Amino acid sequence: MKRSILLLIFLWSASIGVACGQMLDGGIVDSEAKPLSNVVIALYSSTDTLKQKFYTVTDSAGLFSFEKIPADEYVLCASSLGYKPYSANVLVGKQAVHLGMITMEMEWKELSTVMVTANYIQHKGEKTIYRIPTSVANRVRSAFELMRVVPELRINPSSQSIEFANGASFLILINDIPSTEAELKAIPTQDVKKIEVYDTPPARYMAYDCVINVTTFDRTQGYAVGFSADQSICPSSGYTNGFAYAVYNKGQKSVAIQYSYTRRRFTELIGKESYQFTLPSGSVDRQQDLQGTKDMHMHLPALYYIYNNPQKQILQVVIKPNFSHSYNSYMSDISLAKEAKLKGNACDRTSMIYPSVDVFQRYYFASNKYLSNNLVFTNYRVWQAYKNSEWDAMSGVRLLSNDMTQSNVKYSTILQTDFTHILDKNVYSLGMRYAGSLLNTSIKDLQSTNNYHSTQHSIDLYGDYVQQLDSWTFVGRIGLGYLYSKAYEAELSNLLPQTDLSVYYQINPHHKLVFKTAYSYNEPSLSLRTKNTRSLIQGLRYSGNPNLKGTTNATIGIHYTMSYNNFYCSLSPILTQQWSPIFSNYILNREEMLQRPENAKGQTITALRYNLRYSFFAKELLTFTINGSLSHHSLTPHSMKRITYFGTPINYQIDLNLGRFSAFYQGSLFREYMSGLTINAGDVTSNIGLRYRIKNYTFSLNGIWFLTEPEQWSRTNPTSLVQMQSKTIIQDQRTVITLGMSIDLSSGNSNMKARSLNNNDNDSGAF
Predict the structure, then answer these.
(1) Fold of domain 221-749
(2) Can you give the pTM of this predicted structure?
């Protein structure tokens, strides 16, 4: 009897629990983990459509809840304008159900030829954010090719490198971690959340004009492998690009290996050089016609280890045992004054090995406070052999013979650390950077052997501060560097101050106005200066002239940007003034030291940079981009009249996108630019490319230097005392038609950069 009573009581209490129902709650966020408010949430039974339906909307924090829901199998639906509908099966039993945060993706909706979606270009203070439309992500294979989304960027088909239209220097970050272009090629497009371009980089990256930060979605488990290759149709030209990668992720750890191979071989290089200058013994007039070949191989393997715990610390270790080899040979016909004719030949071989170890670590004291440390060690070894000879064309008598070898061994270390604190409306950071290098050079020719020893030590203190006030953003940076260098028995020590201020005004979501001012002082130095150690190629370069005074630089600029989904426009008038003597770099190469001071009092540069992009029809079916500058250079020499130069370089690109098929055509006009007293032009000429993508395979056909000749040339300003001009043309460009194929396979959730940094999108100044 008692058991029956207890059983009845239990069944009665259970029925009461079912009748009262349980609670179901959750939240809605967008692809950037930002809460979405006013999202309609519907809940209806999947077993009986006649049962009552439940509705609610999310609050300002993106949260929703249902109370007293009867136990049943339900379908939960979430909908909001501009986002893809979300639905999922939910089982409600005797316990409360907590769904957590649900992510809704943006959606393109077509109404005839009108696209309705959130603007994929967003301005936020000192950075511009580019979302990745589905129509763009589906037609490219990697984050590297996604750089075409940014109007200021272009991919140079001949060098397969990213370039800013205005020639600005930049650093690539992946989830705020310093990276390279090769790493972008290993990130599938579907893993890219957004691309951020900082036109005022944080102070730790003060050496760069811009910073590109690629943010990816979270990936916790799986692997990815891929391979791509481009080969010229004519094997004699030797135009080859190869890239392979493999990535494995497990939880918070990732391991990746990459290998990149590049070859350039041209058999019909045609060059013309002429020199005209006056010496006390008389005038010199030398003209030279060159014909030769060029062959270059570059091998870039890399090994990555990443530990990513956004709540505590991030660690990345990169090992790169890079090496390359090049060979050049020339035959020349030389004409001198008084109709003297000479013949000549020359060849040089260069082998380089430059392994590096790069360790990046970030420790979080809290979600808005962290300490970043970076250690880079590079060992750079170069062997060069150079031979040349000249003889009389008529008699065959040898007039000149030279056989020289040079070896360079350089050790460099970079240690950088800084602290960043992110607050609600402002950000500040303080840091220190040490760079030291040791260079040993040995030059041997037919007569003698000379050994040189050079050292450099520099310490930089820097800081920046970002303040947001409604539509205004103020970014201030300051740096103070101390440089000690010893080269060729000369010692120099300098203080190098630098400061700048940028003010951003967000007119509305589509319009932004920026005011910039900068000041720096640079003293000449006999110290070793190289490109960033993460670059593929490093140069042994010396800058300055110890007999000249320091140079003061001041820049004032205004930048206006207007952006819509199908239209982008930016205008930047800039005024740069340099006081004190201007000088050029001199390069330690085959000669012991070759210096060329410009011997000028100062120069003024006025420029108007512009960038226009317009997309026709839906889903960017046809896009036209044009960018360039109108620049005026005014140089004031000591002993000559003022030198002026007016330049109008223009770059253009047309993109056609038809689903799986895409094509582009790009080129340039009036591509001259002035540097000091020299006017130069690179090999940026017209190129055409075709792409077809199906599932994990991409096929390409490229015409490098399409309908144009690849050429590089430079000449001195017509008013210069010394007249020099040179021009090199690749005659066999007709063979540089390349076929390419790439394969990308993955399983699970995989990406080399496993997790993005957990900064809740408060990254308004420093990383």
Answers:
(1) Maltoporin; Chain A (2.40.170)
(2) 0.74
